[in-house]
Design goal:
- The protein is built from eight helices and twelve strands.
Length: 265
């Protein structure tokens, strides 16, 4: 004998089937996700001052008065312990002035906020030391006689290394013929620097180009490996110049000042 099956009305069946899916989406929407949200940050002229103190101070060698600017660039990201939800990610995904990054790509794993801050500050100190070593080596200056002090508060990480080195070169040598390395322009850029002058990639360049143009820069020096990232959403009026070494950056700025040809992304 066959038992009679009771059928649920179709709308009720659909509602019962959809309930677990709706619950799943609700959990995902409310649960914190392993991402950090980033936006364009501040820029700072390494040839100038910050909080009343020169960013670059050199002793043991004559220095030049400079015009123009060399602006290091930053991004601002949500903190390592900040909770990022699905709504935040979706909103940022469709904005050109925001980026969604894996949290581990921004912050070292297994460290708390205080440890990460100390890590970033140590990276900045190492970057400043390498920037001075690279610039003095490029200029054939004796580091035992020429001392460089770099002071940039409230900024961590190694990505200002290239701009620090260029600032030292501009203050000591300029364009090599008595003029400014910048040619009076507002030059911005990013990139790590090694003791021997190699420029390294940093990440976040698409946001940094926006910060640079917002603050008046017309030229942006970018690690060559990050050209494609820098070209995405490139602000109008900002020229990209790829570099792989400190000497590349100096040569390009000198050629730019003379109206010569410089590399492009």
């Amino acid at each position: 004998m066959l038992s009679r099956l009771t059928r649920l009305p179709r709308p009720a069946a659909l509602a019962i089937c959809a309930a677990p899916v709706v619950a799943l989406f609700a959990v995902v929407a409310l649960a914190p996700l392993p991402f950090a949200l980033a936006r364009p940050g501040m820029t700072a002229d390494v040839l100038g001052s910050q909080k009343g103190k020169p960013v670059i101070t050199i002793t043991g060698a004559p220095t030049r008065d400079t015009s123009g600017q060399l602006r290091m660039t930053t991004i601002v990201a949500t903190g390592p312990s900040a909770e990022v939800g699905l709504g935040d990610v979706v909103d940022s995904w469709f904005r050109t002035d925001r980026a969604v990054l894996p949290k581990e790509a921004v912050y070292p794993s297994g460290k708390n906020d205080e440890q990460i801050e100390q890590h970033n500050l140590e990276q900045m100190r190492q970057s400043q030391s390498s920037a001075a070593t690279a610039a003095l080596g490029y200029l054939h200056e004796d580091p035992k006689k020429v001392k460089v002090d770099l002071e940039l508060a409230d900024v961590g990480g190694p990505s200002a290394g290239l701009l620090f080195s260029l600032g030292i070169v501009d203050k000591l040598d300029g364009d090599g013929a008595g003029g400014d390395l910048t040619g009076g322009r507002k030059i911005a850029g990013t990139g790590t620097i090694s003791d021997t002058g190699e420029v390294g990639a940093v990440g976040g360049v698409a946001l940094k180009t926006q910060a640079a143009r917002r603050d008046g820069a017309t030229v942006f020096l970018v690690p060559k490996a990050e050209c494609s990232d820098a070209k995405s959403d490139l602000p109008a009026g900002l020229r990209l110049v790829p570099v792989t070494k400190l000497s590349d950056a100096v040569d390009s700025l000198r050629q730019l000042k003379k109206g010569g040809q410089v590399p492009a992304c």
